[in-house]
Amino acid sequence: MNIIKDAKRIVVKIGSSTLTHENYRMNLRRIEAIARVLSDFRNAGKEMVFVSSGAISAGVAKLGLERRPKATEEKQAVAAVGQSELMKIYEHFFGMFGQNVAQILLTRDIMENPVARKNAENTFATLLRMGCIPIVNENDSVSFDEIEFGDNDTLSAYVSVLCHADALIILSDIDGLYDSDPHKNSDAKLISTVAKVDDTILGYAGGAGSNRGTGGLITKLHAAEIVTGNGIPMFIVNGQNPEILYDLFEGKHVGTYFMSN
């Protein structure tokens, strides 16, 4: 299990439920930890790409709203406020550890347009060559049904392919993929390795995650289908303690490992 140790370019994705408290405010202790660990990986010579949710949650907190908006135009406006807040926080914490960050906002149509896709690919490559850590999110302030990824698990998969990554790590609020819901079944077993995402594996996924995010296990499994089908291995690990990434770096088997095809 030296996949991460041997990897040169790694995409790490973190979701809103891992980034924020129940009241939608940013979990600064966790953000500081993820910035420190990713910066340490960068210092070790790895090229890091960070896919981060949280714009809408940050906007909800910034504007003092009681709940996440449902209307599209309200979500777009709140995301515009929150994305600025999110990057300000990231610039602070990554800067503490000597790293330069860059913001990249994407929509699905960029992936589907060959010219736009190539330009995005070149931007990632240039930023990584300059030693920056690109921080990627969906462009929620202008996104709508026809051009949105819908969730950042899917976005992270496309970014991994776009960047020609050696691995994708999804930091979740659970330890990995279980054969049943561990919140309801105390006998649920963690699946340590998935050779192929088939109907049986898809059947293990439940519904959406927390009310602060848009994903769930099903979107993570679809992300696994995309990246493993493009020769990129993927891990789901518990992001409550970002230092778990060091375990992967040291070759320990944690979470769920999805083998590349």
Architecture blueprint of SSEs:
Elements: H1 3-6, E1 9-14, H2 16-19, H3 28-43, E2 47-52, H4 55-63, H5 72-96, E3 101-106, H6 108-112, H7 114-129, E4 133-138, H8 152-162, E5 167-172, E6 193-194, H9 199-203, H10 217-228, E7 234-238, H11 244-249, E8 256-258
Parallel strand pairs: 1-2, 1-5, 2-4, 3-4, 5-7, 6-8
Antiparallel strand pairs: 7-8
Helix pairs in contact: 3-5, 4-5, 8-10
Concise account of the structure shown:
The protein has helices at 3-6, 16-19, 28-43, 55-63, 72-96, 108-112, 114-129, 152-162, 199-203, 217-228, 244-249, and strands spanning 9-14, 47-52, 101-106, 133-138, 167-172, 193-194, 234-238, 256-258.
Unreliable residue runs: 207-215
Helix content: 40-55%
Q: How many distinct helices?
A: 11
SSE string: HEHHEHHEHHEHEEHHEHE
- Overall radius of gyration: 17 Å
What is the straight-line distance between the termini?
Answer: 16 Å
Profile the largest sheet: 8 strands, mixed
Task: Round the mean pLDDT to the nearest integer and report it.
Answer: 90
What's the overall geometry?
Answer: globular
Give a count of the beta strands, DSSP E runs of length 2 or more: 8
Assign the structural class, choosing from mainly alpha, mainly beta, alpha/beta, alpha+beta, or little secondary structure: alpha/beta
Strand order of the largest sheet: 3-4-2-1-5-7-8-6
Strand percentage, roughly? Answer: 15-25%
